[in-house]
Amino acid sequence: MKKIVFVCLGNICRSPMAEFVMKELDKGESLHIESRATSSWEHGNPVHQGTQKILRKYAISFDSSKGSQQISRADFEFFDLVVGMDESNVEDLLQISAGRYDDKIKLFRPGGVPDPWYTGDFETTWQDITAGCNALLELIGRTR
Ligand code: 4NP
Predict the structure, then answer these.
(1) Is residue 28 very low, low, confident or very high in pLDDT (cuts 50, 70, 90)?
(2) Has 36 been annotated as catalytic?
(3) Is 39 exposed, middle or buried, given 0-12, 13-18 or 19+ CB atoms closer than 10 A?
(4) Can you list the positions of beta strands (E) in 11-78?
(5) Closest ligand 1 atom to the C-alpha of 8?
(6) pLDDT tens digits, residue range 81-127?
(7) In this predicted structure, what is the pLDDT of residue 127?
(8) Among residues 107, 34, 103, which one has the least CA distance to residue 72?
């Protein structure tokens, strides 16, 4: 089973949205999916209300007890793919990896996913993330 972790700055807006959308698309068939933060800023905090609202709107089930968690060395070891939600997340991940896990680190989609923490536009985030998850699933499907 392929293990994927989605990573953004806070692990409350974008990466949890990607985690739960991807789980819904995969239906538990072939992937182990989680999400993490590059920072410890939101440690333990729940999924952002904006992301929760979108997930409810589009009937995506999610774990409402999920708290933000910073990525660890053990995560880099465990996961096959470490997917940064934007370019700066990828830069931070490469810095944390320090050459050890660079092969596992990928950008979620060309151009990344702009941060709704700053834009307030969770609907655009939803569109970016569903498109990116479908593309990623197809890519993984082809190479599984
Ligand atoms: P996320 O959004 O990286 O998509 O979870 C953010 C959440 C929190 C902060 C920044 C971005 N923050 O500055 O606390």
Answers:
(1) confident
(2) no
(3) middle
(4) 31-37
(5) 3
(6) 999 999 999 999 999 999 999 999 999 999 999 999 999 999 999 99
(7) 98
(8) 34
**pTM exceeds 0.85:** yes
Residue from 88, 117, 118 whose mutation best tests the ligand 1 pocket (most atoms within 8 A of CB)? 117
Task: Please state whether beta strands 81-84 and 31-37 pair in parallel, antiparallel, or not at all (unpaired).
Answer: unpaired
User: Does position 144 have pLDDT exceeding 80, yes or no?
Assistant: no
Name the phi and psi angles at 81, rounded to 5: -130, 130
Instruction: Say if residues 18 and 5 touch (Cβ distance below 8 Å).
Output: no
Look at residue 11 in the predicted model and tell me its pLDDT: 98
Alpha carbons 75 and 25: distance in angstroms, whole number: 23
Instruction: Name the residue among 144, 128, 2 with its Cα closest to residue 54.
Output: 128
Task: Describe the strand order of the beta sheet including 105-107 as a list of residue ranges.
Answer: 31-37, 2-8, 81-84, 105-107
Ligand 1 center to 143 CA (angstroms): 32
Question: Does the pLDDT value for residue 142 go beyond 70?
Answer: no
